[in-house]
Amino acid sequence: MCGYFASKAGLEPPGPGSLVREIQLIQLRVALPWVAGLLALPPPGSTPAF
């Protein structure tokens, strides 16, 4: 699901006045940290420890 939001959120809106891309970006910002936590991964934007 996060991949879908990520792949679509940056595209042009499907029509004038459409808020679908903004909503997809909002959903991505919620879903990505959530799934990272479920998979025991660092949160998005954090610096990886090498």
Q: What is the strand content?
A: under 5%
Amino-to-carboxy terminus distance: 28 Å
Helical percentage: 40-55%
Q: How many DSSP E strands?
A: 0
The backbone outline, from C-alpha atoms, is elongated
Q: Specify Rg, calculated over alpha carbons.
A: 13 Å
Tally of DSSP helical segments: 2
Average of pLDDT: 85
Spell the H/E element sequence. Answer: HH
Main sheet specs: none
Q: Uncertain runs with pLDDT below 50, 5 residues or more? A: none
Oligomer: single chain
Secondary structure class reads mainly alpha
Short descriptors:
50 residues, single chain, mainly alpha
Q: Please, could you describe this protein's structure?
A:
By secondary structure, the protein is mainly α. It is built from 2 helices and no strands. Helix 1 packs antiparallel against helix 2 (20-38). The longest helix is centred in the middle third of the chain and has 19 residues, at 20-38. The mean pLDDT is 85.
Describe the SSE topology.
Elements: H1 2-9, H2 20-38
Helix pairs in contact: 1-2
Short structural summary:
The protein is an all-alpha fold and 50 residues long. 54% of the residues lie in helices and 0% in strands.
